[in-house]
């Protein structure tokens, strides 16, 4: 008896069976792969966005904390600024002041017994005017503090010794002689004599050997103040 295969032809499998479906199978498979890749990319992108958002939140939090800290320190910064300004002001005032008391003490120590002064004026700037004082013309050539002296000495040697002694005063950088004349007018150290600087009085020249002088002791290294004040 001959066997009969009852399985429909399209459902039979075997060495001779042909695969069914054709290109559609590959299209579906490709679509699934593309869908999987898209889902994977979407997940990765979402993760990156979440990380960036977290980073932004962290930076905003740090910025807010820094601004709060800066606001807390603003008062200290302002206080430091005020302090620096006051220190600068005090320093400026200290630099603009001149220690006339020290200079007068040193002048008293070095003033010889054979020299006496009839006029002594100390000013921090040449444009400062002292009421009742007689000025020495050379004072205009000294921009900073200086002493103007008019007086007499027992001879020209005494005048020269006094000039040398003046240079021993701390801060004196030079001594400029306006004039030095004997009562007879036979000797002169700068021309002009009593007519220079308004020092025309001869009340201290009681003898022919007495020399009358006018000079300026300069403190060139001392700072020049913004505003002048009268000295001694």
Describe this structure in words.
With 232 residues, this protein is an alpha+beta fold. Helix content is 41%, strand content 15%. It is built from three helices and four strands; from the N terminus they run H-H-E-E-H-E-E. The longest helix has 74 residues, at 23-96. The chain is rod-shaped and about 180 Å long.
| Gross geometry | rod-shaped
pLDDT < 50 runs, ≥5 residues? 185-201, 228-232
What percentage of the residues does DSSP assign to strands (E)? 5-15%
The total of helices stands at 3
The average pLDDT value, as a whole number, equals 80
Share in helix: 40-55%
As a whole number of angstroms, the C-alpha radius of gyration is 52 Å
Q: How would you write the strand order of the largest sheet?
A: 1-2-4-3
Largest sheet descriptor: 4 strands, antiparallel
Structural category is alpha+beta
- Number of beta-strand segments: 4
What is the H/E string?
A: HHEEHEE
């Amino acid at each position: 008896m001959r066997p009969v295969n009852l399985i429909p032809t399209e459902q039979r499998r075997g060495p001779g069976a042909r695969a069914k479906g054709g290109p559609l199978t590959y299209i579906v498979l490709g679509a699934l792969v593309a869908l999987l890749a898209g889902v994977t990319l979407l997940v990765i992108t979402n993760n990156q966005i979440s990380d960036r958002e977290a980073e932004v939140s962290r930076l905003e939090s740090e910025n807010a904390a820094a601004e709060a800290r800066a606001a807390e320190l603003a008062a200290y910064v302002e206080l430091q600024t005020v302090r620096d300004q006051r220190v600068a002001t005090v320093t400026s005032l200290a630099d603009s002041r001149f220690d006339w008391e020290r200079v007068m003490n040193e002048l008293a120590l070095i003033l010889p017994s054979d020299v006496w002064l009839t006029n002594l004026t100390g000013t921090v700037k040449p444009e400062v005017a002292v009421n009742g004082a007689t000025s020495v013309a050379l004072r205009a050539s000294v921009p900073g503090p200086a002493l103007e002296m008019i007086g007499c000495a027992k001879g020209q040697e005494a005048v020269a010794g006094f000039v040398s002694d003046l240079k021993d005063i701390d801060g004196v950088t030079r001594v400029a002689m306006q004039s030095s004349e004997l009562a007879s007018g036979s000797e002169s150290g700068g021309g002009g004599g009593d007519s220079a600087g308004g020092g025309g009085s001869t009340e201290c020249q009681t003898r022919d050997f007495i020399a009358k002088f006018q000079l300026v002791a300069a403190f060139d290294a001392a700072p020049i103040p913004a505003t002048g004040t009268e000295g001694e």
